[in-house]
């Protein structure tokens, strides 16, 4: 699989990453052995960007990845969000104390000496962005991470301020055929600073992957059961969009999920910055389907047809999953 620069760094990453969230119970039951095999197969396929978080399974995700990359550390680029904690009745993600504790905890659980990138899980309104970025920059100075990133609740103004403290390698937020919010201001800001954009939930929380045809299909312990895009009325409208995309995918001999991920990757050329989807997989079957998107070429006409089948703002419902 080809490599692309990871923002303004010397790191070269795959054009599609592996989101590891679903491997730690967020999306229902999982099998640890299958998850480890999935991570290892991703590396074998050339997918080297792994996205994780201290919050995923309260550390379970890190331990799982640590087992999977043992003896293969040099083949993986590990991007770890720092998660959130409760402090004085508030949800805190950006305190210097939390940033240090989360970084050091991640290193211990992963069994490695240095992360490739740490990322605040969301811009924390309780602390100035300069203080949050400064605390992450100290982790770079101490050799605990190579780079720093930001996820969720960022604005161009906040990113501009952050860059005055330390370079930001990537911005992570939700982006897919269903969710186009970053397309104007945030992607333009990524282009301005040369940042990569990591698109989480690029398969619309599973609908674009064809996982569920009705709300009753979602396991009770799956967080997506709280997502309004799956409620009666909304789901039917969203499945109609998937049906239109399925016609295009079928003509190309690929799955809708593969088409949707290829569309995200093709936005890099349209938007002027590297846009890297990080679909979450907990099985080798879904991983292979997702990985195939890296080999799909979409013409301008293909892109026009896809946009017509699923235009911006067409999705019904909003996500209630953080």
Model description:
It is a single chain. With 322 residues, the chain is of the alpha/beta class. It has a single domain (4-215, 257-298), classed as NADP-dependent oxidoreductase domain (TIM Barrel). The protein has 10 helices and 12 strands. It has helices at residues 32-45, 60-69, 96-110, 129-141, 156-163, 185-193, 234-252, 256-271, 284-291, 300-309, and strands spanning 4-5, 12-13, 18-19, 49-53, 77-81, 85-87, 90-92, 115-120, 145-151, 170-174, 196-200, 275-277. Helix 1 crosses helix 2 (60-69), helix 5 packs parallel to helix 6 (185-193) and helix 7 packs antiparallel against helix 10 (300-309). The chain starts with a strand and ends in a 13-residue tail after the last helix.
